[in-house]
Design goal:
Bound molecules: nicotinamide-adenine-dinucleotide
Largest sheet: 8 strands, mixed
Low-confidence stretches: none
Number of helices: 13
Number of strands: 15
CATH architecture of the largest domain: 3-Layer(aba) Sandwich
Helix content: 25-40%
Mean pLDDT: 96
Strand order of the largest sheet: 3-2-1-4-5-6-7-8
Order of helices and strands: HEHEHHEEHEHEEHEHHHHEHEEEEHEE
């Protein structure tokens, strides 16, 4: 297929779009393409997810099954059969990019995805990587696997060489739980391997997003995503450090942030918390610091921010200990209820959640820990935790020596929680405006 034929297919909405990795990023994106009347197929190695979607169900809280039903009526289906990739015109990769146990990039998901695309690659296809990763991944990791692994010896298009398939990188910039910005209104940054790949990728995204921002290379697009997340990570660390200082000085940091936010320029508010969570901010910066080492470069801001942010769950546990101590109690033997295990409010995502670390630290110190979260009936085992706990009831708050607010879900009735608890430790300023001798903000 020539690039002109590809453009014609985009215009006619007949370009077949394959999404690989139907998680928090891939599934909503698949639905967005489907909404814009593209024929969409979702690919995932998780057979359970594929079956759930094909029977009209959903496994992501904020995507109701009615949306899946509508999408299926519009032609959406899911499959674990990667041979069907051959039928796709555009393939978008949204697989995980975690860190390994040594805190280094784990590209195994991207590698195995590339290996499953390669045998089915055909001329004219557009392959886009959306997984967050270090600059260079698209050109140095993805493209060589696609080129070596395809039986017809197809090459990717590059500025001077000519080639048969197109490759681009476009970062996902979604903000889970954010109801104010529609997905289509988040500008889509795109960097292709050559101008033609950029143009096709821009055309594809331009059909569903309101604005496309072209950068000159995939590496620039990869770096754009990392800059955004490092910016957040560093600023959160800064405000976390200033919170620790403010606590010592008897200043309310929340009041300070609110006052500083009235400045109409030059200040953007970031908020302190119990530690970083989610699949992005605690992880992505370390993709860059790892890559930087190959250039004899030490990314000091990233390391320092990581150091400060990693200490926050320990600070929370120390604050619980101090608050109990004031009441002549110890963590050892106390009953503690942790409110919220999701890594941020109003979402059903546990990944890297500071609550999990806090629960483990409290248990190690002998507390009897329970948790409540409207989004999780049960917390089992993940990459870094093994809790096997069931969601407690909120009926008898008075039985706990301490109720610890870690995630400030909107559903909670904070005045009631403060009124009925012996002691509340609040890590999020969720109890703003409430004053009580039972309340400690940390
Ligand atoms: N979740 C977010 O808010 C967010 C925001 C921006 C960027 N990102 C980035 O997007 C990427 C995906 O994140 P996510 O949150 O959607 O992850 P996720 O874990 O929710 O989903 C990933 C999906 O990929 C599937 N998968 C794994 N290996 C596969 C393979 N070889 N072939 C096919 N499917 C495979 C998994 O089964 C899973 O369904 C990551 O790089 C992440 O950093 C995530």
């Amino acid at each position: 297929m020539t690039s002109q034929e590809f453009k014609n297919k985009l215009q006619a909405r007949t370009a077949r779009v394959g999404l690989i990795g139907l998680g928090y990023v891939g599934l909503p994106l698949a639905l967005l393409f489907n909404e814009q009347r593209f024929p969409v197929t979702g690919f995932d190695i998780d057979k359970k997810k594929v079956d759930t979607l094909n029977s009209g169900g959903s496994y992501i809280y904020r995507i109701p099954s009615t949306e899946i039903d509508v999408a299926r009526q519009g032609g959406f289906s899911a499959t674990a059969d990667f041979a069907r990739l051959r039928d796709m015109d555009a393939i978008v990769i949204c697989v995980p990019t975690p860190l390994n146990e040594y805190h280094e990039p784990d590209l195994s998901y991207i590698v195995s995805t590339a290996e499953s695309i390669a045998p089915h690659l055909r001329a004219g296809q557009l392959i886009i990587l959306e997984s967050t990763t270090y600059p260079g991944t698209t050109e140095e990791v993805l493209v060589p696997i696609l080129e070596k692994g395809n039986p017809s010896g197809l090459k990717a298009t590059r500025a001077k060489e000519g080639g048969a398939f197109y490759v681009a990188f476009s970062p996902e910039r979604e903000d889970p739980g954010n109801q104010t910005v529609a997905r289509r209104d988040i500008p889509k940054v795109v960097g292709g391997l050559d101008p033609c790949a950029s143009e096709l990728a821009a055309g594809l995204y331009g059909s569903v997003f309101n604005r496309v921002v072209l950068v000159s290379t995939p590496a620039a697009a990869e770096m754009t995503k990392l800059l955004e997340n490092i910016y957040r990570c560093v600023n959160i660390a800064l405000v976390n450090e200033l919170k620790l200082l403010s606590l010592r000085m008897g200043i309310n940091i929340w009041e300070v942030i609110e006052a500083a936010s009235t400045k109409p320029f030059g200040f953007q508010a970031f908020y302190p918390g119990p530690g970083l969570g989610g699949h992005c901010i605690p992880i992505d910066p370390f993709y860059l610091s790892w890559k930087a080492k190959a250039f004899d470069f030490h990314t000091r801001f990233i390391e320092l921010a990581g150091e400060v942010n990693l200490q926050m769950p320990y600070h929370v546990v120390a604050s619980v200990g101090a608050a109990l101590n004031e009441r002549r109690k110890t963590i050892n033997g106390s009953k503690v209820l942790v409110l919220g295990v999701a890594y941020k409010k109003d979402i059903d995502d546990l990944r890297e959640s500071p609550s999990l670390t806090i629960i483990e630290l409290l248990q190690q110190q002998g507390a009897q820990v329970s948790y409540h979260d409207p989004y999780f009936k049960f917390v089992g085992r993940g990459r870094k935790y093994d809790l096997q706990m069931e969601c407690a009831s909120l009926d008898n708050l008075g039985q706990y020596d301490c109720v610890l607010i870690v995630t400030d879900h909107s559903d909670y009735d904070y005045p009631r929680i403060v009124r009925e608890s012996q002691l509340v430790v609040d890590t999020r300023n969720a109890t703003k405006g409430i004053s009580s001798r039972n309340l400690v903000r940390c």
